[in-house]
Amino acid sequence: MRAFLLFVIIGLFLTFNGRGQVSQGGDPLKVVHLKSSVSKLVEMPSFDLNSLKKSIVSSSSKKKLKPLKFAYAFNVNLTPENSGEWLVADDGTLCWKLKIRSKGAKSLNLIFNRFKLPKNTRLFIFNKNTVLGAFTPVNNKTSGKFAVAPVAGDEITVQYETEKRDIENIPFEIIRVNHDFIGILEKGDRRPMGKTAGECNIDINCDLGDKWSDVKNSVCRIIVNGVEICTGSLINNTAEDEKPYIISASHCYDKWEYAETSVYVFNYESPFCAPLDGDPRNSVSGAIMKAQFDSLDFALAELTLVPPPNYRPYFAGWERTVELRDSSASIHHPQGDIKKIALDYDAPSISDFTSSYLKDGFLKIARWDEGVTEVGSSGGPLFDKNKNIIGTLTGGVASCGNPVKDYFERFALSWDHRSEDSLQLKHWLDPINSDTETLSGKRFYEKEEYCGAFTNLNDNDNYKLVKISKTGPFAGYWGGTNSTGITEFTERFSIFGNEQLDGISLGVGLIKTSSNDTTSEITIKVYNGTDIPEKLIYSKKVQIKDLFEGAMNYIGFDEVVEPADTFFVGFEMSNIQPTDSFAIYQSLRGPNTDNYFYFKQNESWQNFEDITSGYQSMANIVELVACNIDDSPSDTPIVNNPMEIIVYPNPATGILTVEAGKDIKTEEVSVVNLIGQNIYFQIEKVDERKVKIDMNGNVPGVYFVRFNNGKNIVSKKISFVPW
Question: What is the fold, at CATH topology level, of the domain defined by 451-627?
Answer without folding.
Answer: Jelly Rolls (2.60.120)
